[in-house]
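To: structure subgroup
Subject: Chain for Friday's discussion

All,

I'm putting the inputs and outputs inline so they're searchable in the archive.
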Amino acid sequence: MTEIIRTLSDAYLTKPSVITIGSFDGVHRGHVQLIETVKRRAQAQNAASVLITLHPHPKQVLRPDSNLLLLSTLEERLELAAQQGLDYIVVFPFSLEQSKLRAREFIQLLRNHLNLIEIVCGPNFALGYKREGTIEVLRALGAEMGFSVTVVEPCQFGEGILSSTRVRALVADGRVAEAAQLLGRYPMLRGIVVHGDHRGRELGYPTANLETPANKLIPANGIYAVRVQLGGEWFDGAASIGVRPTFGGGKRLVEIFLFDFTRWIYGEELKVFFVERLRDELK
């Protein structure tokens, strides 16, 4: 079972570890390929397999005006990564102060807290202040400090490299079926059911207005076929995302329509899995 350590300073591993480091937004197929290499390398050396996830996303810290919206919240990321069978997942609290750590200082932290013996990463990976810890620099530090670096080639999917940026662009454009191919599952939005304007009841169908987390990427406006999880139950439904143009506009809303469903579920959490975009909003 995967152990989740909420901050690096709380980790003190006695067993050697093979690690990978990144944001891992969405935990897509490319991330899974990297994780599988970590697990294989760790098993071959009787070491622990460790994933370090940076939180908040470095871009949100270093470029707060970027308004970056993410595929997964921290809790969703931890849940998805834990499904991959790692020994440990460690959260590295990223801040402006931490961004100024030199590569050597960063590696020393990993040696002290995780008993690092190997880093598994992609070819463009770098860590430390101004990304000074390139592959070449890390290998030089490894020769001095006693760890190795294994580079995994990027995962190709279709016409390009699989990346969180590419998946985010698809979701933002409403192309959820294509995003699902890259993620290995349907894009998901989790939220609490809150009181809305009760338009759905007036129109003759049940609706659940979803309050979604801040900084979470919501698919483009439109109508979607969805699968919805409520506790241990699953339902088919449709999702309407937009500003309710039929009623004269307003703020952007996420409304879920559950088929053959009449219960009151205010205050409960729904997990909404986007299967396919059906059409634009009604005008």
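Points worth raising on Friday:
The chain has two domains: 3-154, 188-279.
The radius of gyration is 21 Å.

D.
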